[in-house]
Amino acid sequence: MLIIKNFLLAFIGLLDVALWLYMWTIIFRAVISWVNPDPYNKIVIFLYRITEPVLQRVRRFLPINNIGIDLSPLVILAVIYLVQNVFLQSLRGYVQLLG
After folding, report:
1. Rounded to an integer, what distance in angstroms lies between the CA atom of residue 98 and that of residue 94?
2. pLDDT band at residue 61, thresholds of 50, 70 and 90?
3. What is the DSSP secondary-structure string of 10-27?
4. Do the Cβ atoms of 44 and 38 come closer than 8 Å?
5. What is the pTM of this model?
6. pLDDT tens digits, one per residue of 9-60
7. Which residues span the domain enclosing 48?
8. Residue spans of beta strands (DSSP E) within the chain
């Protein structure tokens, strides 16, 4: 049982780090969009490829259109925050009770 508990805690930790990295990727993409980046820069291409599929899905469901501000990064950051601080913390507490 101890191996399963440790494996689950390690998986939760990895998921937490992955969400943290994706959160900073979204933030960096939002900041870089303010300065009109070079579309041929490899970093800009990477940021757009890794974030655009998620941002595009959120944009479809936002009721506010044509206001000049893209609110989809804020929605994604809120979801990541909730997943990290509600779901993962609850899961971590549950796994601690297992053993």
Report:
1. 7
2. confident
3. HHHHHHHHHHHHHHHHHH
4. yes
5. 0.87
6. 999 999 999 999 999 999 999 999 889 889 899 999 999 999 999 999 998 8
7. 2-98
8. none
Q: At what angle do helices 72-82 and 2-32 cross, to 10 degrees?
A: 160
**The one-letter amino acid at 41:** N
Tokens representing residue 76 in the block: 């994604």
Indicate the SS3 state at residue 98: helix
First vs last C-alpha separation in the chain: 7
Q: Which two tokens stand for residue 45?
A: 């291409």
66-97 pLDDT tens trace: 777 888 999 999 999 999 999 999 999 999 88
CA 89 to chain centre: 16
What count of residues does the chain have?
99
